[in-house]
Amino acid sequence: MYALYRAVAMVKASREKVVNILSDSRSSLELLSNPRTGHPLAHNKESTRNANAEGKEIRFYWLRAHVGIKGNERADELAKIAAQKADADYDYEKIPLSWVKSKIREETILKWQTRYDSSQTGAITKTFFPDAKKAYATIRKLKPTPVQTQIFTGHTGIAEYLHRFKLLQSPSCECDADKIESVWHIILECPRYEVARYDLEHREPRKKSGILVIRRESLPGSHIQT
């Protein structure tokens, strides 16, 4: 949005009569087209009207980001260089940098959750972690081992997974030919891990141990309990 603000200011200060402004920020362009917006930088609309009154025409266009357009890629490159300069002056100081960072983090998590929900893959991971924000916090706290990561994703050397990729003839578990060796079978049912399962379920104190407890009735769709 600030880039659009500066672009309009440059147009008003120039001698050009007709200027096309290209932006890959669809949200900023939609904000400008919204007559009810209260965004502090949306007075671009007023500046544009003033420019029109001065005989200038400013037209806004949206273009897709990172599509091989040299000018767009060059703009991204220069923006990154400017952001890396520790002594660079702020162009806009009406809101604190901490607020900007928090909003970026918030928007990123929302987009992450949307993509996570709409994805057709990762069913096992979604059973453990249906909420992206909670998943991020849990993973940072837990720091999972390679084995735990394999369990959380289902990408591990169990019969069901290997059979899916034709690396095993059968998905059955060694304990019972009628039982599929899945992540849930290993965690909840397989007698080969009964001792380890009992040890985990009765280890104290549970909250301090960081043990992940999954109840049979919570599958699928319920978040893991720590």
UniProtKB/TrEMBL annotation:
Q: Give the residue range of the signal peptide.
A: none
Recorded GO MF terms: nucleic acid binding; RNA-DNA hybrid ribonuclease activity
InterPro entries, per the entry: RNaseH-like_sf, RNaseH_domain, RNaseH_sf
Source taxon at top rank: Eukaryota
Q: Enumerate the PROSITE patterns for this protein.
A: RNASE_H_1
Matches recorded under SUPFAM superfamilies = Ribonuclease H-like
Cited Pfam families:
RNase_H
Q: Where is the RNase H type-1 domain?
A: 1-84
The name this protein carries in UniProt is Retrovirus-related Pol polyprotein from type-1 retrotransposable element R1 4
The organism named in the record is Eumeta variegata (Bagworm moth)
